[in-house]
Amino acid sequence: MAVQPGHIAHDRRVRVQGEPVDRYPRLAPEVERGEVRRITVVGEEILGRRCQEVTQFGTPELSQLIDDMFATNQAADGAGLAANQIGVDLQLFVWDITDDWGVRHVGHIANPVLDEIAAEDRKLVEEPEGCLSVPGPYRMVARPDRAVVRGLDKDGKPLVIEGRGYFARCLQHETDHLHGHLYLDRLPRKERKSALEEMAAAKDEVFARRAARAQKLGK
């Protein structure tokens, strides 16, 4: 998920894997360890199908993948990134995002499942939404303002993450990715077409910015 335009990161408080921490570096440790990978773009086959479940936990390969996802997300100035966005067919996503109340959320989750939330406990909010795999355009998308996602961490331990506002939108956006859906799929045909046209015009500039950020990170 791309960072929402005008969204300011305050980083006054931090929650890592859903738990509050007293101190946290500006760059997540995973960013330092990871390598930047190429981000897939709308139209590539892997973005249009459901990903496979993660079955091997606690491995160096899974840890490295998560590190690489964090590094790639940072270089792309993203809020969240799913594994199929770097060409890996696994139900896994990462996030590093500051919510509407100035709380920074950092983490990863495998095999995520969104809870069904009763209508009286949430409301639909329409806000601009972008995607790292749709470089450039943002479009208004309606989503519930609360999300609860259940899954596993990299060691196979159960994990429950709750988000509200912008963070809830991120959790839903990334879970959509793992089911083979982009935010474009939620748009009327005319809006989708205009977004793709805007992407075609903007993508080279976006790719250049990402390359510059990666270089600045020493990646």
How would you state the average pLDDT, rounded? 95
> What is the count of distinct domains?
1
Based on secondary structure, the structural category is alpha+beta
Total number of beta strands: 9
User: What Rg do the Cα atoms give?
Assistant: 16 Å
Characterize the main sheet: 7 strands, mixed
Instruction: Indicate the low-confidence ranges by residue numbers.
Output: none
Number of helices: 4
- Determine the CATH topology: Peptide Deformylase
List keywords for this structure.
seven-stranded mixed beta sheet; alpha+beta; Peptide Deformylase; two-stranded antiparallel sheet; globular; 219 residues
Protein model, in words:
The chain has 219 residues and is an alpha+beta fold. It has one domain: Peptide Deformylase. It contains 4 helices and 9 strands, in the order E-E-H-H-E-E-E-E-E-E-E-H-H. The strands form 2 sheets. Strands 1, 2, 3, 4, 5, 8 and 9 form a 7-stranded mixed β-sheet that branches. Helix 2 packs across helix 4. The mean pLDDT is 95.
